[in-house]
Write the structure tokens for this entry.
Amino acid sequence: MRHDRGRTLGDVARRAGVSPQYLSEIERGLKEPSIEMIAAITGALEVALIDLTLDIAERLLTTSAPAPARVSTGRTALALAA
């Protein structure tokens, strides 16, 4: 969402009150932010928390899920659900 809005990492980090490194780690999934941090980031992006949540949900739905693994048991194959 930061990229879509044309915002730099440094600008959003400064406005959210965090280091650019920490924000980058959140974006890359290396850190799990608190709800307070998420609120600060959404404020820095000037979006509502629900809009961020919906954006993430839509991106997850459009990302293709990996095909289920198949295990051969001779004549039949069983699908394993993740």
In short: The longest strand covers residues 69-72.
